[in-house]
Amino acid sequence: MYLEQETLTTELERVENYEFKVKFDLMKAPQIIVDEPEPLGRSAGPNASRLLSAAVGNCLSASLLFCLGKARIPVRELRTSVETVLRRNEKGRLRIAGMKIRILPSLEQGDIPQTRRCLEIFEDFCIVTQSVRQGIQVDVEVVPSSNVRE
Q1: Domain coordinates of the chain in residue numbers?
Q2: Any idea of the CA torsion for 84, 95, 43, 17, to the nearest 10 degrees?
Q3: Which is more confidently placed, 133 or 142?
Q4: Using N-to-C axis directions, what is the helix angle for 48-70 and 127-134, rounded to 10°?
Q5: Would you say residue 147 has pLDDT above 70?
Q6: What's the rounded Cα separation, in Å, for the pair 126 and 103?
Q7: Is 144 left (phi over 0), alpha (psi -120 to 50) or beta?
Q8: Is the pTM of this model over 0.70?
Q9: Phi and psi dihedrals of 86, rounded to 5?
Q10: Which residues contact 18 (CB under 8 A, 6 or more apart)?
Q11: What's the CA angle centered on 59, arms 53 and 61, to 5 degrees?
Q12: How many CA atoms lie within 13 A of 45 on its CB side?
Protein backbone atom coordinates (compact mmCIF):
# COMPACT_ATOMS: atom_id res chain seq x y z
CA MET A 1 0.00 0.00 0.00
CA TYR A 2 1.36 3.41 -0.92
CA LEU A 3 1.64 6.17 1.65
CA GLU A 4 0.95 9.84 0.99
CA GLN A 5 4.60 10.08 0.01
CA GLU A 6 7.03 7.28 -0.63
CA THR A 7 10.55 7.26 -2.01
CA LEU A 8 11.68 4.47 -4.32
CA THR A 9 15.39 3.84 -4.81
CA THR A 10 16.87 2.34 -7.96
CA GLU A 11 20.62 1.91 -8.29
CA LEU A 12 22.61 1.58 -11.50
CA GLU A 13 26.17 0.34 -11.82
CA ARG A 14 28.09 0.47 -15.05
CA VAL A 15 29.16 -2.94 -16.33
CA GLU A 16 30.98 -1.74 -19.46
CA ASN A 17 30.48 0.79 -22.22
CA TYR A 18 26.77 1.77 -22.05
CA GLU A 19 25.65 -1.39 -20.24
CA PHE A 20 24.41 -0.97 -16.66
CA LYS A 21 23.23 -3.36 -13.96
CA VAL A 22 20.03 -2.05 -12.36
CA LYS A 23 19.12 -2.95 -8.78
CA PHE A 24 15.68 -2.20 -7.35
CA ASP A 25 14.81 -1.63 -3.70
CA LEU A 26 12.74 -4.82 -3.62
CA MET A 27 14.21 -7.95 -2.05
CA LYS A 28 12.55 -10.33 -4.54
CA ALA A 29 13.11 -8.26 -7.68
CA PRO A 30 15.92 -9.52 -9.88
CA GLN A 31 18.57 -7.20 -11.23
CA ILE A 32 18.21 -6.27 -14.86
CA ILE A 33 20.65 -5.12 -17.52
CA VAL A 34 20.01 -1.97 -19.52
CA ASP A 35 22.00 -0.95 -22.57
CA GLU A 36 21.85 1.37 -25.53
CA PRO A 37 21.06 -0.03 -28.96
CA GLU A 38 23.80 -0.49 -31.52
CA PRO A 39 25.96 1.22 -32.66
CA LEU A 40 26.35 3.03 -29.30
CA GLY A 41 25.79 -0.04 -27.13
CA ARG A 42 25.31 -3.75 -27.71
CA SER A 43 21.54 -4.00 -27.04
CA ALA A 44 22.31 -6.32 -24.10
CA GLY A 45 19.07 -5.10 -22.48
CA PRO A 46 16.35 -2.53 -22.96
CA ASN A 47 17.30 1.15 -23.09
CA ALA A 48 15.58 3.94 -21.13
CA SER A 49 12.95 4.60 -23.82
CA ARG A 50 11.95 0.94 -23.81
CA LEU A 51 11.82 0.87 -20.01
CA LEU A 52 9.55 3.92 -20.02
CA SER A 53 7.34 2.21 -22.63
CA ALA A 54 7.17 -0.89 -20.43
CA ALA A 55 6.41 1.21 -17.34
CA VAL A 56 3.51 3.02 -19.02
CA GLY A 57 2.12 -0.22 -20.49
CA ASN A 58 2.46 -2.09 -17.21
CA CYS A 59 0.91 0.68 -15.15
CA LEU A 60 -2.10 1.03 -17.45
CA SER A 61 -2.57 -2.75 -17.60
CA ALA A 62 -2.38 -3.07 -13.81
CA SER A 63 -4.80 -0.16 -13.32
CA LEU A 64 -7.32 -1.73 -15.68
CA LEU A 65 -6.95 -5.15 -14.01
CA PHE A 66 -7.44 -3.59 -10.58
CA CYS A 67 -10.60 -1.78 -11.65
CA LEU A 68 -12.04 -4.85 -13.37
CA GLY A 69 -11.23 -6.92 -10.28
CA LYS A 70 -13.04 -4.42 -8.04
CA ALA A 71 -16.02 -4.63 -10.42
CA ARG A 72 -15.87 -8.45 -10.14
CA ILE A 73 -15.23 -8.83 -13.85
CA PRO A 74 -12.87 -11.77 -14.40
CA VAL A 75 -10.07 -11.30 -16.92
CA ARG A 76 -8.91 -14.53 -18.58
CA GLU A 77 -5.93 -13.00 -20.38
CA LEU A 78 -4.57 -9.54 -20.96
CA ARG A 79 -2.10 -8.38 -23.58
CA THR A 80 -0.78 -4.86 -23.98
CA SER A 81 1.28 -3.32 -26.74
CA VAL A 82 3.02 0.03 -26.49
CA GLU A 83 4.16 1.79 -29.64
CA THR A 84 6.61 4.53 -28.70
CA VAL A 85 7.52 7.11 -31.33
CA LEU A 86 10.96 8.72 -31.18
CA ARG A 87 11.43 11.94 -33.12
CA ARG A 88 14.10 14.62 -33.31
CA ASN A 89 13.22 18.01 -31.83
CA GLU A 90 14.17 21.42 -33.21
CA LYS A 91 17.72 20.99 -31.81
CA GLY A 92 18.09 17.61 -33.49
CA ARG A 93 17.84 15.69 -30.18
CA LEU A 94 15.81 12.49 -30.03
CA ARG A 95 12.75 12.73 -27.79
CA ILE A 96 9.77 10.56 -27.06
CA ALA A 97 7.13 12.17 -29.25
CA GLY A 98 4.23 9.99 -28.23
CA MET A 99 2.95 6.58 -27.22
CA LYS A 100 0.07 4.49 -28.45
CA ILE A 101 -1.08 1.86 -26.01
CA ARG A 102 -3.43 -0.96 -26.95
CA ILE A 103 -4.80 -3.15 -24.14
CA LEU A 104 -6.57 -6.37 -25.05
CA PRO A 105 -8.36 -7.98 -22.09
CA SER A 106 -10.05 -11.32 -22.72
CA LEU A 107 -13.46 -11.23 -21.02
CA GLU A 108 -16.67 -13.20 -21.02
CA GLN A 109 -19.05 -11.73 -23.59
CA GLY A 110 -21.68 -11.01 -20.93
CA ASP A 111 -19.19 -9.00 -18.84
CA ILE A 112 -18.20 -6.57 -21.60
CA PRO A 113 -21.10 -4.11 -21.03
CA GLN A 114 -20.12 -3.85 -17.34
CA THR A 115 -16.60 -2.60 -18.23
CA ARG A 116 -17.83 0.88 -19.20
CA ARG A 117 -17.12 2.51 -15.83
CA CYS A 118 -13.61 1.02 -15.59
CA LEU A 119 -12.82 2.18 -19.10
CA GLU A 120 -13.81 5.70 -18.08
CA ILE A 121 -11.64 5.89 -14.94
CA PHE A 122 -8.73 3.40 -14.99
CA GLU A 123 -6.22 5.73 -16.69
CA ASP A 124 -6.58 8.28 -13.89
CA PHE A 125 -5.21 5.71 -11.41
CA CYS A 126 -2.08 4.92 -13.42
CA ILE A 127 0.76 6.63 -11.55
CA VAL A 128 3.27 6.46 -14.40
CA THR A 129 1.03 7.51 -17.28
CA GLN A 130 -0.47 10.46 -15.46
CA SER A 131 2.97 11.57 -14.25
CA VAL A 132 4.41 11.39 -17.77
CA ARG A 133 1.42 13.28 -19.16
CA GLN A 134 1.87 16.11 -16.66
CA GLY A 135 5.65 16.20 -16.54
CA ILE A 136 7.86 15.23 -13.65
CA GLN A 137 10.33 17.38 -11.73
CA VAL A 138 13.78 15.86 -12.16
CA ASP A 139 16.66 17.25 -10.10
CA VAL A 140 20.14 16.18 -11.24
CA GLU A 141 23.39 16.28 -9.29
CA VAL A 142 26.74 15.08 -10.65
CA VAL A 143 29.48 14.43 -8.10
CA PRO A 144 32.80 13.69 -9.82
CA SER A 145 35.26 11.57 -7.88
CA SER A 146 38.84 10.50 -8.43
CA ASN A 147 38.32 7.29 -6.45
CA VAL A 148 39.28 4.38 -8.65
CA ARG A 149 38.50 0.82 -7.62
CA GLU A 150 41.47 -1.48 -7.67
Answers
A1: 8-46, 50-135
A2: -160
A3: 133
A4: 130
A5: no
A6: 14
A7: beta
A8: yes
A9: -105, 135
A10: 35, 36, 40, 41, 42
A11: 100
A12: 17
Beta-carbon contacts of 100 under 8 Å, excluding residues fewer than 6 positions away, are 82, 83, 85
Residues ≥6 apart with Cβ < 8 Å to 88 = 94, 95
Per-residue CA distances from 64 to 74, 76, 108, 112 (Å): 12, 13, 16, 13
Three-class DSSP category at 127: helix
Q: Which residues contact 132 (CB under 8 A, 6 or more apart)?
A: 52, 56
The tens digit of pLDDT for each residue in 70-96 reads 999 999 999 999 999 999 999 999 999
φ, ψ dihedrals at 25, nearest 5°: -85, 40
* DSSP 8-state assignment for residue 72: T
CA angle 139, 141, 147 (to 5 degrees): 155
AA letter at 33 = I
CATH class, 50-135 region: alpha beta
CA atoms of 35 and 50, how far apart (whole Å): 10
